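Quarterly update from the structural biology core.
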Amino acid sequence: MPLENYYAANKNQLREVEFPVNVRLFKLIRVLVTGGAGFVGSHLVDGLLAEGFEVTVLDDFSAGRMENVSCHRDVEEFCLVRGDVRDVGLVEKVVDGVDVVFHEAALVDVALSVENPVLFNEVNVVGTLNLLNACLGCDVKRFVFASSAAVYGDSEPAEKREDMLPEPISPYGVSKLAAESYVRVFNGLYGLETVCLRYFNVYGPRQGLASSYSGVITAFVSRLLKGEPPVIYGDGKQSRDFVHVDDVVSANMLALQSKNGVGGVFNIASGTTIAISELAKILQKITNTERLKPIFAEPRAGDIKHCSGDISKAEELLGFHPKIKLEDGLSRLVEWHLKAHAGY
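Predicted structure, tokenized:
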């Protein structure tokens, strides 16, 4: 189906799909991925199409890239809709006829959320509510929501568990917590099967280069490959739990299948942490730029000091087991950047 055509499911041929599904039945399922041209979303689309799903992507391309999905241009089971989750009428059209919704679309820039909290509420909260409402009227069987570790804020202990009291410290974190709460209410009150996945620091190919919403890994790689020193905000002692995008895709596929995960919230992380200064050293070693001295800048508003994820709940109920070690993932990422951006 050509790019940017609206999804046109034959309503008379909707299938009955029993959940949880078996992997052999994946090809029977129609899926909507919001934000499917973005970093995580496009990898999820790749995985879903490889398993035989029929996939519709809804993306406004504020952060997503056409190049992330253009390889599927001639795939019959793929359709792309350019649009905004705030557009109620459009949301109702694209949800109609799908069996599963993976909601990846969101504004994710913490600094921008500090500047414009109203916009983040409109996109991340109201947009999610629009999708949930549409799901109720269209017999959607499962809704998988991409939440964030930002809901925890800077509370103690640094290792976050799902039963901790969320204390977000940025409008972005607040918006994710509010959206997540709506998702859980739609499960408990209306019976919509939902699963919330709290992503920690996701990294991997296709993450934006040197843009305001990039992860620290991408920002470091971008500068190092240009022979520029990495910029570290704060003292570099702040720590993060980095999880590879392939493991995040795996978590989403497990969330689709899991019977025990319905109605739940799960940390999706690697289960290990590293200080930002140590991360910079590893990347400098991989890129042969150890001669460069990092630049230390003022801490950014809304940034969390320490954050790691306890993934025992996801391991037990979803069967989630991250496979990609950080140094391996970083080496693969640098190789990808060298191939994708040969001008460096």
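Confidence is low (pLDDT under 50) at residues 1-17, 23-27.
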